Amino acid sequence: MPTRRRCAVILQLVVCLAVAQGLTARPSAARGAPDSFADLAERLGPTVVNIYTTQTVRVPNTPYHFFFRDDQEMPELFRRFFGVPPQGHGGQPDRELKRNSLGSGVIVSEDGYILTNNHVVEDADEIHVKLSTQDDLEAEVVGRDPQTDVAVIRVKAGRSLPVAPLGDSDKLRVGEWVLAVGNPFGFEQTVTAGIVSAKGRTLGNERYEDFIQTDASINPGNSGGPLFDMEGRVVGINTAIFSRSGGNIGIGFAIPINMASHVMKQIKEHGRVVRGWLGVMIQQVTPELAKSLNLERPVGALISEVSPGSPAAEAGLKAGDVIVEFMDKPVDLMTSLPAMVAQTAIGARAKLVVLRDGERKAMTVTIGELKEERMAGGEAKAGDLGLAVQELTPELARSLGLPRGQEGLVVAGVEPGSPAAEAGIERGDLVVEVNRRPVADLASYKRLLSEARNREVILVLVIREGHSRFLVVPNPK
After folding, report:
1. Contact indicator for 141, 153 with CB cutoff of 8 Å
2. Is 78 helix (H, G, I), strand (E, B) or coil?
3. What does the pLDDT read at residue 374?
4. Beta carbons within 8 Å of 476's beta carbon, 6+ residues apart
5. pLDDT of residue 80
6. Is 149 a catalytic residue?
7. Dihedrals φ, ψ of 291, to 5°?
8. Average pLDDT per block of 10 residues along the chain, 477 residues long
9. CA nearest neighbour of 470 among 438, 425, 428
């Protein structure tokens, strides 16, 4: 065979081999699936804990409750038809029940700090943590943040504990493999694998939502457990599932670790969460709004109102502006902006890009501090009903579906076993009257409670799910 022809044949064979290798290697690289999760599971297992809590609740001891475990389980139609009295007014002494719940957590420091969900430890009388070594330790709450559903608890083990390293959830990509470890239904150290299905999800339950969606199996009891990436770093705290049956159907949600670690840092440094404040009311840009605003596509956060004297007002932001960038990060969804602002340091000069009249405009805003709604309840002995209430802001009114101009105080918390709890007042209720007199603000609420200090009971009118109801609260003396 001539030399030239032989070289051509050899070159052709080399090219074919290279193409073949590329074709066989490319799917493997794109898939990125490990041969096994065993090494990761073995290494990370000791950093995940089982959390179980006990809560004491008081329920009426009436014949009606023979059929129901507590008053919350009793159907409203049944209660109204038979005239069942409010809790604490059944004519017989109340009975106490113990409620137990399960959850998970992840150890984030050698001296025993643990990240979990707020709803796992909220209102708990006792909190116990079981380590992978089966050590059972009593835990204390360092701090809770209902707004993000993050809580920090601590145990004292008397030794250094294994720690899970924290990752960067901002760098997490849709399609990446993730590992969930927790205690679903009490089955300890359960490991499941899946991928990141989506980012920036919202469920409409909390003010600051930016969930990671995953198809890794998450079930009741997984709440508070970690979501790991393939490097063994925590990228999320599992918090919720979407299911019509209560079991896993492949749609689970986790709090991004960047948000959770920010909350933890605030709790450890300040004992509470200090959040940045912009001072605007925003709404999602729909396709119809995008068209009317001359936008190419529906992105960003549309400012519908600017609070007078706020950082946004001082910076010159206006209603109708669309925020599309915040601190060099794109704002694709309206729901992602509150979390971005909240995690910005107070006094920081934040760079924004807004669309105004179809043109991009760069602006700088000095971030203020969000003054969390003031709490009342417990300052005056005569009015200590066991309630934490907060003034009704336009944002709260809108989230609760209340009409414009509605007055009242929102119940932010109810102390277990308190007179308010016995009467059936629940978190989220709107207190509009005390003893048939309107409640407009905290000052009027405190005044009315003070005036009622000699009464045996206090008549409270609340709005719950769009319906008004009177509740009789025993007056503590």
Report:
1. yes
2. helix
3. 32
4. 381, 382, 384, 385, 419
5. 47
6. yes
7. -65, -45
8. 52 48 42 79 94 73 50 50 47 62 92 94 89 93 90 94 95 94 87 92 69 89 92 93 65 92 91 88 82 82 87 92 92 86 93 90 93 39 66 72 83 80 86 88 84 83 83 79
9. 425
Cα 72 to Cα 91: distance, rounded to the nearest angstrom: 19
- Check if the beta carbon of residue 137 is closer than 8 Å to that of residue 156: yes
Q: Tokens 């009388």 label which residue?
A: 125
User: Environment class of residue 301 by beta-carbon count within 10 Å: exposed (0-12), middle (13-18) or buried (19+)?
Assistant: buried
Q: How far apart are CA 43 and CA 39, in angstroms?
A: 6
pLDDT at 6 (0 to 100): 55
Q: Are 101 and 57 in contact (CB under 8 A)?
A: no
pTM of the entire predicted model: 0.63
CA–CA gap between residue 428 and residue 152 (Å, rounded): 24
Contacts 24+ apart (CB under 8 A), 408-415: 408/432, 408/439, 408/440, 408/463, 409/376, 409/439, 409/441, 409/442, 409/445, 410/373, 411/387, 411/462, 412/373, 412/375, 412/388, 413/387, 413/388, 414/386, 414/387, 414/388, 415/386, 415/387, 415/388
What pLDDT is attached to residue 163?
Answer: 96
Assess whether 119 carries a catalytic annotation: yes
Sign of CA dihedral 88, 89, 95, 98: negative
β partners of residue 53: 101, 127
For 420-444, letters b (16+ CB in 10 Å) and e give bbbbbbeeebbbbbbeeeebeebee
3-state secondary structure of 43: helix
**DSSP per residue, 422-475:** HHT--TT-EEEEETTEE--SHHHHHHHHHHTTT-SEEEEEEEETTEEEEEEEE-
**Catalytic choice (71, 149, 215, 384):** 149
Query: CA 152, CA 117: separation in Å to the nearest integer?
Result: 8
Marked catalytic residue, from 119, 197, 210, 262: 119
* Pair of tokens at residue 261: 């670690």
**Cα 210 off chain centre by:** 9
Q: What is the pLDDT of residues 30-60, one digit of tens each?
A: 446 678 899 999 999 999 999 998 877 655 5
CA distance 155 to 119: 18
Catalytic site residue 35? no
pLDDT at 30: 43
CA distance linking residue 103 with residue 294, whole number of Å: 48
Residues 259, 260, 263, 267, Cα dihedral to 10°: -170
Catalytic residue among 223, 261, 336, 418: 223
Burial-class residue 32 by CB neighbours within 10 Å (0-12, 13-18, 19+). exposed
